[in-house]
Design brief:
single chain, 93 residues, mainly beta
């Protein structure tokens, strides 16, 4: 896991997904796009936020401190990278 200072590009709406680990078999999920500070062409990350974190709202331009977990998994002979945001806090301006 890595903790970084990033800027929010955009955030989608929360939605329910199936989860064997969650009570009731479903968990809330939300996607957020975060960008490194520094300029127009810095790296961007499309991250998933799960559970209570999915209910948190951030807005374009918000500066945040986020902990990201990078992982890969294989499905039907294809490899996918996933980025999970495990913690995120807005930096007060």
């Amino acid at each position: 896991m890595e903790t970084r200072i990033l800027k929010v590009v955009r955030q989608g709406e929360a939605f329910s997904v199936q989860s064997a680990k969650a009570d009731g078999g479903q968990i809330q999920k939300c996607n957020i796009v975060l960008k490194e500070l520094g300029g127009k062409f810095e790296n961007e990350y499309v991250c998933a936020m799960l559970g209570n974190l999915a209910a948190c709202r951030f807005y374009e331009g918000d500066v945040v401190i986020a902990t990201l977990r990078f992982s890969t998994h294989e499905y039907q002979n294809q490899v996918f990278q996933e980025i999970l945001c495990t913690d995120i806090v807005k930096v007060n301006k």
